[in-house]
């Protein structure tokens, strides 16, 4: 059976997906600028009553165990930090994409959100621990969005997981991207990239989404960021949160050494940190994506 | 049938014949399975990292998380079921410890986990009779307490036993 997706089909799929809200879209643009101020984030959130309410709900959730309720949005945002605000905004607009069952990957509902959240936490932690000149919060956002293309092509991949997996183990396909391309014509990286462009995401984020399995091919200005997400993705998969049938079915691009100076045994501390942080975030963002 | 579900860093045991001891989606984590034929007890630890020295507080809170603290904790747990304290007579099986394709030393956490576990088991005079370690896919493990059969599964692959 032939279920090939053409570029035209892909555009139709993308058009059927709700656009990001104006505030979420602005938020992603503002936070991608290395010189932005927290004030800008605060005033953006304030323009969106829904988002403001969600942020206050999250900050006062049991996960943070605050003794007294925070009622000021300014305080809530500085307490939570940018990355959690971005997670809430993305979850509000695109929660369904993250939440849906991805039968093409034999993945239960919420598996993609968990994978993305762990990738985001790991990418951020790698940036912090390597002291790279990248915004840790931008690495987080990029991690959150990197695999969004999976939810666009998953339905077309239905029942193909055994085939994809055996193509890779018999080396007929180089990795899961190559298998996706053979099976449905478009890999999840390209599908995600097209969505990112339709959403008018900042260029660095588009680059990460397109090249996260081979950062050496990303544009120079986005390459370090793409490596951080690439490694974060691998850490999420090694940690047992790899979406579904595609988990660990990709190659490590070891060119990261030039961009990220990783201390020895960094993996041990990053993996531990991811487990701790994930528990906290997942609980506080409950119902956001999965 | 009751399921004893173990998350990352958990360990546990059961001797109820209807039970199944289970852990989901091992990536680089390793599942240490101890079967005690004498008391018909099944124990398992879901180990995430080789060495507890990186975070002692975590090791105290969740000894199953690290290879060096998981095995003593699991043996102590199984002793509550009447098993030998040092694991005498137990059958050992290991699975998990996956790696990334084209992995380098930094990323071979699965391999380091498996090595650390084997070293500690050797110190107890124990060795695995069966193992399914390494390679590049995630594994879900289920053990029937009644038969001791270890069943592995992974999305996109038929189930297998070790
Ligand atoms: Fe991906
Ligand atoms: Fe991913």
UniProtKB/TrEMBL annotation, chain A:
Segments forming domain HDOD: 17-215
Pfam family, one: HDOD
NCBIfam families, A to Z: HDIG (TIGR00277)
Stated name of the protein: HDIG domain-containing protein
Organism: Malonomonas rubra DSM 5091
TrEMBL record, chain B:
EC number(s) per entry: 3.5.1.44
Biological process (GO), any one: chemotaxis
Coiled coil: none
Sorted UniProt keywords: Chemotaxis, Hydrolase
Catalysed reactions listed for this entry: L-glutaminyl-[protein] + H2O = L-glutamyl-[protein] + NH4(+)
MF terms (GO), sorted A to Z: protein-glutamine glutaminase activity
CDD domains listed in its UniProt record: CheD
Pfam families: CheD (PF03975)
Gene3D superfamilies on file: 3.30.1330.200
Keyword Signal annotated: no
Enzyme class: hydrolase
InterPro entries from the UniProt entry: CheD-like_sf (IPR038592), Chemorcpt_Glu_NH3ase_CheD (IPR005659), Cytotoxic_necrot_fac-like_cat (IPR011324)
Listed HAMAP family: CheD (MF_01440)
Stored PANTHER family: CHEMORECEPTOR GLUTAMINE DEAMIDASE CHED-RELATED
Protein purpose: Probably deamidates glutamine residues to glutamate on methyl-accepting chemotaxis receptors (MCPs), playing an important role in chemotaxis.
Record family assignment: Belongs to the CheD family.
Protein name per UniProt: Probable chemoreceptor glutamine deamidase CheD
């Amino acid at each position: 059976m032939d279920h090939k997706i053409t570029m035209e089909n892909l555009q139709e799929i993308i058009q059927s997906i709700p656009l990001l809200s104006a505030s979420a879209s602005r938020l992603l643009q503002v936070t991608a600028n290395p010189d932005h101020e927290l004030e800008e984030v605060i005033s953006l959130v304030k323009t969106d009553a829904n988002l403001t309410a969600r942020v206050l709900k999250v900050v006062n959730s049991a996960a943070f165990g605050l003794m007294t309720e925070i009622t000021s949005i300014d305080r809530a945002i500085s307490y939570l930090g940018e990355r959690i605000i971005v997670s809430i905004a993305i979850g509000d607009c695109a929660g369904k994409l993250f939440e849906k069952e991805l039968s093409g990957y034999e993945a239960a509902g919420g598996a993609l959100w968990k994978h993305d959240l762990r990738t985001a936490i790991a990418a951020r932690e790698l940036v912090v621990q390597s002291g790279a000149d990248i915004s840790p919060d931008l690495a987080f956002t990029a991690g959150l969005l990197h695999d969004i293309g999976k939810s666009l092509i998953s339905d077309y991949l239905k029942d193909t997981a055994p085939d994809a997996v055996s193509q890779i183990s018999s080396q007929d396909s180089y990795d899961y991207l190559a298998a996706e391309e053979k099976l449905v014509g478009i890999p999840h990286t390209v599908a995600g990239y097209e969505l990112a462009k339709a959403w008018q995401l900042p260029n660095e984020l588009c680059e990460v989404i397109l090249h996260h399995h081979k950062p050496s091919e990303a544009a120079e200005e986005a390459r370090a960021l793409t490596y951080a997400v690439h490694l974060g993705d691998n850490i999420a998969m090694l940690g047992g949160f790899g979406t579904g049938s595609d988990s660990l079915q990709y190659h490590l691009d070891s060119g990261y050494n030039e961009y990220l100076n990783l201390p020895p045994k960094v993996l041990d501390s990053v993996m531990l940190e991811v487990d701790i942080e994930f528990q906290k975030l997942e609980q506080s963002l409950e119902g956001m994506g999965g | 049938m009751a399921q004893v579900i173990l998350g990352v860093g958990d360990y546990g045991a059961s001797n109820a014949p209807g039970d199944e001891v289970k852990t989901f989606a091992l990536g680089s984590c390793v599942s240490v399975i101890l079967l005690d034929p004498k008391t018909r007890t099944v124990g398992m630890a879901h180990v995430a990292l080789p060495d507890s020295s990186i975070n002692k507080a975590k090791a105290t809170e969740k000894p199953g998380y690290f290879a060096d603290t998981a095995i003593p904790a699991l043996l102590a747990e199984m002793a509550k079921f009447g098993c030998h304290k040092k694991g005498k007579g137990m059958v050992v099986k290991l699975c998990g410890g996956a790696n990334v394709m084209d992995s380098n030393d930094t990323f071979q956490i699965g391999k380091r986990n498996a090595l650390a576990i084997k070293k500690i088991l050797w110190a107890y005079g124990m060795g695995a009779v069966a193992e399914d370690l390494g390679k590049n896919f995630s594994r879900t493990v289920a053990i029937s307490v009644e038969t001791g059969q270890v069943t592995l599964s992974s999305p996109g692959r038929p189930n297998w036993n070790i």
